[in-house]
User: Fold this.
Amino acid sequence: MKRENPKVNEADESGIEVTGHPKAWAAGVPGVYHSMQPALTHMGVDRARKTLLALNQKDGFDCMSCAWPDPDHRKTFEFCENGAKAVTWEATPVLVHSGFWAEHPVSELRQRSEYWLGMQGRLTEPVYKKAGADHYTPVSWEQAFTIVADKLASLPSPDRAAFYTSGRTSNEAAFLYQLFIRAYGTNNLPDCSNMCHESSGWAMGQTIGIGKATVSYGDFEKADLIIVMGQNPGTNHPRMLTALEEAKEAGCRIVAVNPLPEAGLMRYKNPQKVKGIIGRGTELADQFLQIRIGGDMALLQAVSKRVLDAEDAHPGTVLDHKFLAEHCEGLAELRAHLAGLDEAAVLAATGLQAADIDELAARYLAADKVIITWAMGITQQKKGVATIKEIINLLLLRGNMGKPGAGASPIRGHSNVQGDRTMGIWEQMPPAFLDALGEEFSFDPPRKHGFDAVETVRQMRDGGVDVFVGMGGNFVGAISDTAAAEAAMEKTALSVQISTKLNRSHTVTGAEALILPTLGRTEIDLQKSGPQFVSVEDTVCAVHASHGVVEPVAPGLLSEVAIVCRLAAAVVGDRTSADWAGFEADYDLIRDHISHVVAGCSDYNTKIRQKGGFVLPNGPRDSRTFSTPTGKAILTVNELEHVERPAGTLILQSMRSHDQFNTTIYGHNDRYRGIRKGRDVVFVNPDDLAELGLADGQHVDVHGVYADNVERVLRNYRLVSYPSAKGCAAAYYPEANVLVPLDFVAEGSQTPASKAVVVRLQPVPALEEEPTAGG
Assistant:
């Protein structure tokens, strides 16, 4: 099974190539090539065939690279370029051998890039770093679980441990994980949603009673207008481009709102259609509003005001009065608030012309069915929660909720982050869930709210958390304020990572550290009762099964379910009525309990075996019912605030390269933005370069500008002249996390505000222009 480790060509940033021009279209033949070339090279023909043909199929496995929903009628090749790369990354038969740990001390691994670490291959055995040691050494599974159990048992309070979850974790593993942790005695359940769509959950929960999309896959094709905000589907969820193409072909109009022009929202060359191979493809965005970073809230308020003004000019013909009267409250307060909206302040905040906003308002007024969809460009702002409430306001005014082709659509970026939350992965689960969990398993779950991701770092920093356990993901790589997060992790007594491959979080550890290797989603999971499957929930509340299709890369690997069961047996034993050994042997037993505990999941084992799975109930979508205190959707009043930019500074956003997924770096090219052989770049509008006395190709230090006077800087970054919004800049995540203070978060949700970072560019003297690592 093992293949030779591929040569790892690290980018030293000295040979970076910049074309200077972003691409005007996405996918096409290059998308096919960049999907298949890595798969064939790193997996071989047979393994590539087995995995890619099963990817996102009804009897196959769910893609781990995004939560985009699957259509009812699947194509043979139901995957995108980044989905193929994610499968290749996980299913590679390249292995980390036992001798690796003796050859590479942790201090050396810490100097390696995310790309180099991941390219070493799949993890195959538990390894342990003793306190004071600089090497991991292999240990048995029994030893590993004993180390964790002894450390957790020694803590003076269960609240001195935190248990992180990545969105790739299955429903079954997530349900058992939160059960284990609550049986241990804490609600410290930070997860990746805290860092991405927590703002969506807060805003939607407070206004319509559910923090999930109120649309289905089929609604996109039925919409008259789709407004895409703060989102780059061409890189982050490319299969969405097919849904947008289908909507466009059905007569829908599309508006893109973003500080950067993104190829995937300009023109899509569908590689499964003739016109996507030899033709021009499909023009997607009918209007592109190149908004100033942080100006989205002002834009939405301005459009809502224009809608209300149109109603005043033509009473009874614009607003959906029946819907508003029967299902909503707060209209009078919203009217009064927006009556005083300052148009000059709106234009300053957005960087747009009044005519641009007029055109968007006219499109909205002409459309009977509207979907507004967004991602982290909206959620990761200081006013992210309020901005999403303004999205809901605009939709409610004309009844764009609970009817075909209309609704709110946050797009999740991780494959099962929504399912994990449904299964109880949240530090603030409501009493009804905890009551049902306690009754099902004969114990009293803790009620005190636990720590989210940012609070976990604060607690580790301040000595309040001694043990950190991560179920997947790359916590220190993903969270804001990199230096603070890493220093905090190093203060813990024990850090545990459950992972398929190496990443930064394995190199920044507690005094003691464990790495527990796990099966990937692509692999056959054989337990005592036979082959098992798991389930996941996508971004439109559809739940479906995922079956591994290839043999595990190494013997002795445990599934996430098995790891959780054995940890729980070692740590909490019989404190509950949970049958941990039985759960590991037969995942149907887990789903039986999910049926009794999780709302909307009754008869889970039957429904999950239906072709295509089932859809969870959604009040706003299904029946225009809203689980708010009054039972009505709430139109809200939000005070306008935009990001101030002092003279000589820019507002910077972090973003992904096309050649990465979250913190996983597949390569050093971002072909849609014209970057090759490097990542240490900052994209700046050419007019801003001129005003700042800087030049394309020059090297600068990028300094964060904050009142706490802590130095946060990216060293020696190459300037790239780029058509970004005036006054705005961009750099790649996760490197740019170093610039985001830990306490700089969205109000209410505590999501890191990575899309509104004020920076100053300091030229690097020519003699010092030698490449260094960011951070």
Summary: Residues 771-775 have pLDDT under 50 and may be disordered. The chain has 31 helices and 31 strands.
